[in-house]
């Protein structure tokens, strides 16, 4: 009898592990036994091993320009979402549509919203699970807190892509001295529930605040020294930016179009060059350990035109997205061509006076491969999307 019960439970677990995450999350409410099973480390590893080997199991993702969605991928077996991840962010929270709660950043499947009604507050949450953490303002004892803008979100993930913690970044000040660029920030940690201040030094002036972030590290490209990156891990104790030369440094040719993006857990640098009868595409990957670049692809595409690299597939390093009034490499994706045209034309306007530009304005919003509750800071208030929408409507 015990053997029969064990076999039935094992078969039940195998069946559940083949279902999408959204379905699994609902089954947690069936009974205590199912909840315990579905939240166990064994079940998580089983689920990931089964879905890792499926060609259609890549997690859902969206490519964003600000709060506008250019490319969307959904319907995969990992999540089973009927809509793209970005479409799950309620419209009142999207920038330019309503001044009450603005989309600011995303990392590790979490989204950061600023509060336009009360700028001292912001929110971090998962739009799929509809869980949100209300981030308190900096302490009154910090004179810089009131003037600090909500700037960014970084997360720390484990090997399975589970969010272990997050940090909210508020930008306090930027200052250029004779030989040093100082970035003053306030950091809120989900592990401690408190704000701390930090000043990070960079030998080059950061000329705009656009960036990408990956596993706790923020990467800037537009510097006073063209052809380099400034990177800082906000989970580290260091007060210095790392300076990384791009692989084609110091080639400043305006014939190139360049994009810094992410794929497969790495920072990826993509460069295209239009020639008379072809387009040459090169793709490099940044080594996470020693900041060296590995050339992954150098291909000549039999397409004529000034194709601009937009992004890489977040999970498939062999898929790149190029734009010249059409998107190349978009199997199973939804493309909003009107948004693509507007965004790309704005970035690569031929009237631009910049001699060297690396585009980092297209940022992926990627759902994690496993759903876990949003990390809850000590004494933080947790609310759902409905409550947050009601609040935004009341303020408006």
UniProtKB/TrEMBL annotation:
InterPro entries assigned: Beta-prop_At3g26010-like, F-box-like_dom_sf, F-box_dom, SCF_F-box_component
Positions of the F-box protein At3g26010-like beta-propeller domain: 59-376
Start and end residues of each F-box domain: 13-44
UniProt superkingdom: Eukaryota
One Pfam family it belongs to: b-prop_At3g26010-like
PANTHER family assigned to the protein according to its UniProt record, in alphabetical order: BNACNNG10540D PROTEIN (PTHR31672), F-BOX PROTEIN CPR30-LIKE (PTHR31672:SF13)
Protein name in UniProt: F-box domain-containing protein
UniProt organism field: Brassica carinata (Ethiopian mustard)
